[in-house]
Amino acid sequence: MHSFNIHKSTPLILLVGIMGFMALNGCENPSGSSGPMSRFIDSLIQEMTIEEKAGQLTLYTSGWDVTGPVLRDDYMDELRAGRAGNLFNAHTVDYARELQRIAVEETRLGIPLLFGLDVIHGYKTTFPIPLAEASSWDLDIIEKSAHLAAKEAASAGVNLTFNPMVDIARDPRWGRIAEGSGEDPFLGALIGAAKVRGIQGKNLADPTTILACVKHFAAYGASQAGRDYHTVDMSDRELRQNYLPPYKAALEAGAATVMTSFNELDGVPASGNRYLMTEILRNEWGFDGFVVTDYTSINEMVPHGVVANEKEAAELAFKAGVQMDMQGGLYSRYIPELIAEGKIEESTLNEYVRQVLEMKYKLGLFEDPYRYLNKDREQQTLYSQELMNHALLAAKESIVLLKNQPASKGQSNLLPLSKKLGSVALIGPLADNRKDMLGTWHVAGDASKVITLKEGIAQIAPGVKINYARGAGFSGDDRSGFAEALAAARKSDVVIMAIGEDYTQSGEAASRSEIGLPGPQQELIEAIHALGKPIVAVVMAGRPLTINWIDEHIPAVMNAWHLGTMSGKAIAETLFGDHNPAGKLTITFPKNVGQIPIYYNMKNTGRPFSADNKYTSKYLDVSNEPLYPFGYGLSYTTFEYSNISLSSSELSFDSSLTVSATVTNTGTYEGQEVVQLYVRDMVGSVTRPVKELKGFEKIKLKPGESKRVSFNLSAKDLAFYTLDMRFEAEPGDFKVFIGPNSSTGLEADFKLK
Asked: By CB count within 10 A, which of 356, 390, 419, 694 is most buried?
């Protein structure tokens, strides 16, 4: 028999325990309108004062890890008064248990708390940043990372994570590009759904799963000029075609909650935008969870200039369809007044409270408020071998090989390095660095657990002497370390440059107008290059960097992002050939910031580029082509694509066709390849992109092995928002492409009739 803590609050709370027990044990469907969940919540709402109801719609930080102005330090008083029904940044069993005890034993009704945390790519055990992990193109790995991160966070008392971030981003100046999956809505939708499945599992009553929160709704990744917290301006067609699909997919996967974005859309900040929060989210998509704002974003509608004061801001957000106020405290402060003045309805308030209480019920918190607060489970879960093994796998699969050529004529490609090398120079600010390899939003990640690149090489290639020098930092112009770095390079057979960003130089509030190597790192690598030594550049960052010079001068370039706890071992295994890289970019790398925004699924123009005609769409000082296209990534082996075929040259609206091609490993290493399918709609009622990703498959081939890879296409896959804003396919001519990236591949034609 399950136990339930009975306290001073009235017999209603005993009823909670009984009903919760019944629902969690399958006695009745808790989601049914007449089920125990509904009956219990109805009874509870009837017992609540308006102030207590407003409290359930209020979320305060506990004081740890804030991401904005700390507006209140009296959250404990608010909690005891029943005016704070939820907390975030309160984790570890010991800390959260005391807070939950106050909620269930010292408040009038004893309603348990939700504990939220930004578990973006791990809790203690840190996995690759999301943009890195997307480069694996492996939905199973991504889903398992989300599951394990949720499991570890849940063991420390967390039951709500503000993840996944599914914002489509085409501007690498925007720091939060690190938190998402890149530029493509098709891939972004699949990844968002995978993360929700991983976080929430099949049963929210399982204490190893937690609530997912899809963010930032909507179109936050399109912030003008790549500036965080900035405005967004786009058509409804663009919004629906390219930015909304990942949110919708995540919600269809069952995401329990949604977070508003900081930006405005069509002149209205998201937290007050009824079109987004009610018309699309509720009425069109049928979402029945709760919406929480981002940090103080209701308050921020005052400087946005759509309301005159914070009371009006609270009213606007409430009427827009926002259920929970994060950190600003405006709901708690003004909802009672607004109801008394007749500006908002108590019936609507009751519905909002219901949506929050339902999530607490489904998590089993009414049956056992302490179900997430088990000290033994916490100790057994943190940094478990299962988590560490997966962190290594995810890190390796996220690495993208950008270039691999011989260091000099007549030699083989520089990578993989031989474990028989006499010595390597390991140079750069990320060579023996723990904290920065964790990346942005590493939350509770413990830097002491990180395997550095220096340590990883020592483990993987113990016979190779490492001549280490930091050389330079991430900021300023201090070149005092150059001499030591040059000396290390001179006495080494190969130089490994570990360069890039520190963990603060990407992520929230980390927009950059220039996205080259920060600090004197570029000067350092140029000085090392002048010695004539073979160089491998290992670039670690939370965004694409403009590394034209490196691509031109350095024979081997590896993009390793920020890979988390097992970074160093993953990179070392890849450098020395224990792992063959297979990552593919999910974001286009520009040659310079002047090309931004640059993305693969752009539209043609009326004057597409022609080298023979001045008056076509181009730059005078740089080509239109990116440095590295979407979907790009090399391997230590080579793959050949051949024999594309279609099962039919015509596709009807009620059938499908199969597109196939043969992929052969023509090199000497076993390797993985992400085979990608793109289509082009040649003529539409509105202009269409030059290519759109419609499928992919990750395959493994031994040297000399071939595989026939097939994809099915239906009319549904060709649908778009037409001139009259109907989502449907139009008949006409199409091209289909199968290849290793968005810029290269085999091509065929078909008609939709």
From this structure: 356
Instruction: State the average pLDDT over residues 485-510.
Output: 98
Same domain, residue pair 56 and 175? yes
Domain count, the chain: 3
Dig out the tokens for 207 from the structure. 């204490």
Q: Are 689 and 603 in contact (CB under 8 A)?
A: yes
Longest dimension (CA), the chain: 84
* Non-local CB neighbours of 317 within 8 Å, separated by 6+ positions: 271, 272, 293, 298, 301, 325, 330, 331
pLDDT digits (tens, 9 = 90+) for 370-391: 999 999 999 999 999 999 999 9
Residues 291 and 412 in one domain: no
Name the residue among 131, 105, 554, 118 with its Cα closest to residue 370: 105
Q: CATH number, domain at 428? A: 3.40.50.1700
Residues 161 and 275 in one domain: yes
Q: Tell me, yes or no, whether 5 lies in a domain.
A: no
Q: Provide the whole-model pTM.
A: 0.95
Cβ–Cβ < 8 Å for 333, 318: no
**Burial grade of 303 (CB within 10 A; 0-12, 13-18, 19 or more):** exposed
CA distance linking residue 168 with residue 191, whole number of Å: 12
Kindly report the average pLDDT of the chain as a whole number. 94
The sign of the torsion formed by the CA atoms of 541, 546, 549, 555 equals positive
Please say whether the beta carbons of 295 and 327 come within 8 A.
Answer: yes
Residue 364 vs residue 19, higher pLDDT: 364
Q: In angstroms, rounded to a whole number, what is the distance separating the alpha carbons of residues 81 and 158?
A: 22
pLDDT at 62: 86
The sign one gets for the Cα dihedral 738, 550, 591, 189 is positive
CB 20 within 8 A of CB 364: yes
Closest CA to 162 of 244, 61, 300: 61
pLDDT of 198 higher than 50:
yes
Q: Which domain holds residue 132?
A: 11-379
What sign has the CA pseudo-torsion 611, 613, 614, 618?
Answer: negative
Q: Which residues are catalytic?
A: 294
